[in-house]
User: Which sequence fits this backbone?
């Protein structure tokens, strides 16, 4: 019989980071661009629209932009089903390795040590500080295949961003198509 984890072990498990490969494409669109229809795609049998998500993300880097120079992003995001810390590392043309760590305190700007350790060779002893804030209103369509499993998520995002603490706000709209874990990119 397997031993049951203690409360301390379960709490420690919730603080652990996880890792997966993210395959996505982003598209810049105008306000008047009509979202695509997925009718007629042989691999998509059903589309489900989820309730709108309101996401707030603070991006971190060294003051000199060392992570951005290596195409690495680090953010703390609240809202949505994957709220938490996200470290995204290049893993190919449309792929990135995403390391996710849970939020311990949603107001805490201290980068989790296990994420800092991943980029330590780049940041060395420099501070990781907030460099941008992005607020997103996201509409998600989940695309399902014949097996009933989700194949991808199509996100229609209304984005507002500002750099640093004094940066002027910019707004735009973008689409993101992200394959779910295990979906063949050639489908």
Assistant:
């Amino acid at each position: 019989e397997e031993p049951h984890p203690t409360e301390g072990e379960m709490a420690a498990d919730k603080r652990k980071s996880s890792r997966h490969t993210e395959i996505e494409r982003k598209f810049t669109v105008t306000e008047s661009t009509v979202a695509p229809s997925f009718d007629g795609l042989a691999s998509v049998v059903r589309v489900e629209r989820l309730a709108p998500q309101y996401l707030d993300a603070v991006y971190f880097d060294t003051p000199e932009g060392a992570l951005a120079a290596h195409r690495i992003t680090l953010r703390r995001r609240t809202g949505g089903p994957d709220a938490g810390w996200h470290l995204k590392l290049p893993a190919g043309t449309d792929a990135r390795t995403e390391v996710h760590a849970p939020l311990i305190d949603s107001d805490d700007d201290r980068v989790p040590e296990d994420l800092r350790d991943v980029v330590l060779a780049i940041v060395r002893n420099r501070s990781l500080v907030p460099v941008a804030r992005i607020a997103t209103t996201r509409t998600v369509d989940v695309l399902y295949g014949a097996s009933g499993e989700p194949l991808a998520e199509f996100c229609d995002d209304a984005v507002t961003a500002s750099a640093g603490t004094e940066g002027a706000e910019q707004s735009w709209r973008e689409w993101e198509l992200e394959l779910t874990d295990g979906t063949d990119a050639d489908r």
About this structure: Confidence is low (pLDDT under 50) at residues 1-14. The first strand starts at residue 18 and ends at 29.
